[in-house]
Amino acid sequence: MSRDPVAGLLAVARRRRIAIVLALALPWLPAVAACTWRWQGAAAAGVATAAAAILIAALAWRSARALDSRWLQRRLDAAHPALEDSSALLSTRAASLSPLALLQRERVLQRLPSPDAAGMRFPWPRARIAAGAVLAIALTAAALLWPPQPPQPSRAVDAVATPAAADAGPGALQLLEHTLGITPPAYTGLPPRSGSALDARVPEGAVLAWQLRFAPMPASVALEFLDGRRIALRREGDDWRGEATASTPGLYRIVATSPLPWADDTLYRIDVARDRPPSIRVIAPAQNLSLRTPAQRHWTLAFEAGDDHGIAASAEMHLTMTEGSGENIGFRDEVRRLTGRGDRHLKRFEHRLDLDGLGLVEGDDLIVHFVVRDNRAGRAQSTRSASHILRWPPPQARADSGIDGVLQRVLPAYFSSQRQIIIDAEALIAGQPRMRPEAFAAGSDSIAVDQRLLRLRYGQFLGEESEGAPAGPGADTAAAAEDLPPPPMLLPTNDAEDEAEAWRDMVAAQAEDGPARTAGDAHARGDDAHGHDHDHGDGAAASTGTEAASAGFGVAGDVLEEFGHTHDIPEAATLLDPKTRSLLRRALGEMWQSELALRQARPRDALPPANRALALVKEIQQADRIYLARTGTALPPVDFSRRLGGEREGITSRRHGLVPATMDDDVPAAVWRALGPQAAAAAGDGPADGVSPADLAALQAWLSANEARVEDPLSLLAAVDAFARDPGCDDCRQHLRGLLWPLVTPPPAAPAPRTAADGVGRAYLDALRGERSE
């Protein structure tokens, strides 16, 4: 027995588990190798076998790691009652056990069975192992005995095969060897390469070198492109050589002059990869507009530039600094070169500007943009980044400059709300013990200004033009209302209107006839309650006779019409219904009370009316209907200088862009219709009706001018050439028609003609005619 009997038993169990997993899985390795070799080749078979071996080893290791000390304790306690469920003591250090536990541990060690008796050597699953081995051997044999697939012929160009591209016979000119060498431009950093394939994808500006060998020797050899280019090859010994610079993509075929026939008219394809301009990604600053702080001394700039073939080692940083303001503004430009870090395809540029060294002052702007170039020799492409601005805000205008009537606070009128006014007042009350009386009064007055601006915003819906007398008697009798109990708070669900009316009666009784006398004096001076100094005519003074007698006595509306001054004319202010307007008047009155208390540095007394105003505003927001003002249309003035002048510049038809006059100018559509089955049937064995060499030439010219609209122009050009060489080839016709279909301009939508009436419809129409004749 080893020093650690538990570890010994666990090792025996793990070895047996690994052996069982390997016995079940290893017979499948030859099957995987044979199947992959048959259908994918020897290289793929080696990769698949290695991957399968790694997977089997991982499964065996994971299966063995699943057997741990806890599993061993449960197995021993369940299979051997003599251990008295104390096998856990074997995994515990002896120094940490009590004397009684040590005694029990010694008893368990004495009764611990051997690995065979303990069941650590699992029985072999012979049936599963035998079945798996038989299936794996059968699969391996089937893969090895399966007949090999014939090799698939490779095609050089994705185009329609023509009958002229058949294999040359023994009495024809044959191409024995062909090589295409490609030398990319030096700035790309790509190595030269060569191969037997005559079609290739090359970078723009690459030098192509052809080397051909024929048997027997022809008289002349040339490469003819479908776009009209021709490259004549020169003879050097037994080979024909030629070179050209790849500037545009194209399709070409080999043309040889010889007494023997040359039957190979295969099209070969040269794709040209355009050199893309470099890209810029600005890292810092993150936003296009940054504001300079007084403590800021530097401005960090960083950006990354990348290119497909290589970026230049240096970049340009253009600085534009503004000086002055208004009509005296000036500009200073400066260009600095930056050196980047990184490889040739991706570089990072960083720079730290010294703002004090640039001479910026308050009110100036610093505008920066970057320019990077690639390493293309002679014709470098450049990219400019977006402009980034560092603005030093000008000094704020002082409110105590003596022009208080000109400088006005605008932001509170847009950002202050009634709830915010309440929050500010509560915060001011909470901080009163820590504030001086002057600061407390100034804070209360600032909140009163916000309350005034908010009141004016709501008052404009009732026609108020200035901040004259408060709407209602509460503002004129504020001093008398100080001793009264606070008015009740009217929530949207509160129906205590009687209580509010009683409070208003108390205020009116205490004021007695003061407001009426004040109003009379104001009317005698020609001023209204809103502080206006304009006259409304003499109609009010002359209406004391019969018109006053005919009017209803004591009606508030008539009194207001005769003696008052109202701006909420029904024809001009009809946005709100009467109920909402009543709520708005009450809210404005509460705002007056709140502003009055805040002006007197009594924010505690301002909270109750402010809360009531908030409740009324929330109720106004729930208004279910608004009325829009009845206003007429405002048409632009007529330009009489253009009338009856006969000038038609700028005048287009209303049908322009909706229904084109004709579709004949759509070349792909015309050729597509001519290639249809009806045209082919009418043509018979001859050329297709309507498809002439001129039409195909027009299609090629349209393709040259509209390459951006075609996904693969070379494939379409190859299909046109194949059909032109064999007009009777139905496969060539269908292939070309399929490539033209995505290029056809869809016709505009047109109304469907009215269908003929059925029997019921004709009877109905006859009945209508009969009634009309009667």
TrEMBL record:
Cited PROSITE patterns: PROKAR_LIPOPROTEIN
Listed Basic and acidic residues bias regions: 520-538
Protein name listed in UniProt: Membrane protein
Tree of life domain: Bacteria
Biased amino acid composition, Low complexity: 468-483
Chain residue ranges for the region called Disordered: 464-494, 512-547
TM region positions: 43-61, 129-146
Entry keywords, A to Z: Membrane, Transmembrane, Transmembrane helix
